[in-house]
Amino acid sequence: MTADTMRHEGRVRADRLRATARLLLPYAVFLAILLLVPAVFTRVPLYTMGNGVYMAILAIAALGLVPLTGFAGQISLGQAAFFGTGAYFSAILTVKSGLPATPAAILGMATAGAAAYLFGRYLFRVSGHYLALATLGLGLVLTIVASQLEITGGTAGVVGVPSLAPFGVELFDDVSYYYLVAAVLLVAVVVVDGLVRSWLGRSLTAVGDAPHAAASSGIDIAARKRLAFVVAAVLAAAAGSLYAHWAAYVDHHTMDLLLSLQLLIIATVGGIRTVWGPVVGAFVVVTLLQVSQELFPELSERVGGQAEIVLYGLALILVLLFLPKGLAGWASDVIQRLTRARAGADEGGAR
Amino acid sequence: MAELLQHVLTGLGTGASYALVGLGIALIVQVTGVINFAQGDFVMLGALSFALLAGAGVHPVLAAAISVAGAMAVGALVNLAVIAPARGADHTRLIILTIGASIVIQGTALVAVGTKARFTPDFTPGELRLAGVNLPLQYLWIGGAAAVMVTGVWLLLTRTLLGRAMRAVAMDPAASRLVGISPRRMSFAVFTLAALLGGIGGVMLAPIQAPDPQIGLALGLKGFTAAVVGGLDNPAGAVAGGLLIGVLEGLAAGYLPSGYKDAIVYGLLIAVLLTRPTGLLRTIAVARV
Amino acid sequence: MTEARLEIIDLTVRFGGVRAVDGLSLSHSQGGVLGLIGPNGAGKTTVLNVLSGAAPPTSGEARLNGRRITGLRADRIARAGVARTFQNLQTFHSLSVLHNVLVPLEARAAAKPVVGLFAPLLRGGQLRQRAADLLGRVGMADQLDTPVASLPYGARRRVEVARALAADPRLVMLDEPLAGLSRAESDDLARLIRSVADSGVTVLLVEHDMVAVMRISDRVAVLEQGQLLADGTPAEVQADERVRSAYLGDELDYDPLLHKGDKRAEAAARQRVATDPDAAADPGLAADPDVAADQEAAADRPPQTTDRRRREPRAQQ
Ligand SMILES: Nc1ncnc2c1ncn2[C@@H]1O[C@H](COP(=O)(O)OP(=O)(O)O)[C@@H](O)[C@H]1O
Ligand SMILES: [Mg+2]
Description:
The complex is a heterotrimer of chains A (about 350), B (about 290) and C (about 325). Chain A is mainly alpha-helical and about 350 residues long. Chain A has a domain at about 45-255. Chain A has helices at about 5-40, 50-65, 65-70, 80-95, 100-125, 130-150, 175-195, 200-210, 210-215, 220-245, 255-270, 275-295, 295-300, 310-320, 325-350, and strands at about 160, 250. Chain A has a two-stranded antiparallel ribbon. In chain A, helix 4 (about 80-95) packs parallel to helix 6. Chain A is globular, with a radius of gyration of 22 Å. The mean pLDDT of chain A is about 90. The model of chain B has no long low-confidence stretch (mean pLDDT about 90). With about 325 residues, chain C is α/β, with parallel strands linked by helices. Chain C contains 15 helices and ten strands. In chain C, the strands form two sheets. In chain C, strands 6-7-8-3-9-10 form a six-stranded mixed beta sheet, with helices on both faces. In chain C, strand 4 and strand 5 form a beta hairpin. The longest helix of chain C is centred in the last third of the chain and has 19 residues, at about 255-275. In chain C, about 45% of the residues are buried. At the A-B interface, helix 5, helix 6, helix 11 and helix 14 of A face helix 4, helix 9 and helix 11 of B. Bound molecules: adenosine-5'-diphosphate and magnesium ion (MG). Magnesium ion binds near residues 44, 45 and 87 of chain C.
């Protein structure tokens, strides 16, 4: 071993320590915020505990877009379809078949994942932005089908989905349900963060950055995109299951295109290349929703309760034009610049 | 037999307007590489403003002119305000930006005029009677307008400097820049052109599909399907694709329970993307490396 | 390692009416450096694209050690032992230097059955070490953690070469690796290419720098309009009348005739990139030799390059 590589090893070890600290710090902050939400949301105007639950569910459903859209560059407008798959599976299997909630949810996630896998097998054979179009079509077809079939309850949907009782603890109100969805969100964030930081995330980045070079480096591009698509589908289905038990009913509006758009906006506005993006984005989007309903209640009524989509659209365009890395990406850049400036100042002082 | 012919002919009529929508999508993909999700909203703007103006008593010709001009202006604005400022953005970001533009256009229209569908009479009342078929004259209007527009686009692309410049950018942006063509200006031109096509398609459709602010989605999807059937960046293919899905939809409306009409078209979109994503009508294009 | 045996058999690639490659047949099994030259648009890059699976041939085929590679997916061809660099720089711009080279190493480790997905995790340290060694070989040892996007052009080219060498290829194809490098950088990289070839890896070198090609190649093939014009040792090719009249001019200079037309075009393009922010947005052009590197190279280049010519070329067999 040369002196050069030894010096390198030493530096690597010091870097690793610093990297671990940098990795864990956001998690500590995140955990603190998650725990603070109930105390805050039950006291301030504008927000309710239900908003907290909804934010966490939306964040889980949008999280899969980080590897899929942020890293592999593939746009999906079908997240709502998988969300709906999870929701319908949980609702139908618990209400009509009397299955316990957990296996029902797992079946829903598995079905969504399998569907995404099959879809991806054909779709990703050629490069291009075909996923956006295909998932848009898929979402609309599934919405129509769900409103027609008998098993999905037609346009009436499935009502009376039971509330959850993990470990015998009945989650009867929004506060207790919040702790469950927050825990699932935390796990989902860790899993997706682990994925994008691993060699798999690196190869996804390579696919998004320079597909031809990635292929010539031995990466099966279609397989990578498929993996990301499956992850996104499974997470959306999990969120859908949580939603079904929380809302207690599911109908075809549960998988409305509006939700797919919302999820894309959540991930993009928050920051599509970091797991913190969907979390921040969910907060922003639900806040916009609350604000628009607070400010223009009668307008919201007149246009079928969708006045807020103008705000969503504007937020999306503004963020993409001025903060392309999203709010979380921008914040992390600012923090990095500040710490680097401070480190520079420290060094200057020491000299 | 006459019934079948009836469905095919009305299908060709509506299909002609889908062809215009698809043509706009294909042109934008070809010149900029971006799938424009706001294309359906250009159509909606044309249709809705025509129905509103005509309903308010404006002379139909003037109403049509204003509506088409309005759609064009919005198309140009989308390019200037949303696409052009996103310098250095990759296609993924640009496509999401067009989704944002679509949401804003639709939402603004909703806030401005509400969710109500607007009815408007045919340009000229009456029907064409031929071999047992009764074809409302409106379908002939659509077919005629589409034929004129498609011919116009073809002439533009092959006979004019602007058209050749657009094609040059489509083939090789780097080389075009070397000979002094700005891809950015061509992007502006093609968005405006696509909005023109969408606006005309919308005006023609208004009497047939009473427009509301939310029809942009369905119309856009028909345009995507038309373009995808043709190969997404193949203008001629998009026109053929538009006619094809028009006929398919006409037949579905005639022989299937209602409600499945749209599902058939979306199903076709998915089926084509899964089996022949590069289009039914052409062979694969090769990316430059 | 056994020498790569490359066979190109009656290969044709058409783009619309253009025959980019027109019935090309070429075999090479003696290792070393095979230079592939020809004017701009001759079809050199297209040949590389077909051999690496980035573009399908219209007809004909290519084989590596007897196995047909045309028609295989690009990642399969990579696994069969073919690596390449790209004329228009294709680094993974959001990754660090080290991670750029780690990508092919991890892809190969993951390709093993059974351990599959976990191999890159379990052997992480080992793979990193190998990536660092490779980067040391191209002189990038002290910039392992630098984001590749912040590197100057020449350094990115070297990262790309290291990445191509990472997965122990039998055949490495380099598409104009010396373009846009300073004299010193160019000499270093040429030396590296030679040492790679001497270690038993076959190198297919597409390059406009005639002096370098003639110096480091063992065999040179000349392509014109998709067809093979000449083929032989550097000395033979330089002596070939058709080649001389068609490309090289009377004097083999650093900037021979074959360079002039497209040099001007390249300079114009660069000028535009520098002044037109819109142009810079296009990755194809933005990736071109950046202005600084090229001006540096130009300043470095003596007007008369006879001394370079006289420098003894490698012993030719
Ligand atoms: N993807 C493509 N589409 C259309 N024409 C192409 C494409 N790639 C290359 N060509 C054409 O093929 C010919 C050969 O190009 P290329 O292989 O890049 O030449 P070289 O690398 O020798 O300069 C040129 O005329 C070029 O314009
Ligand atoms: Mg080339």
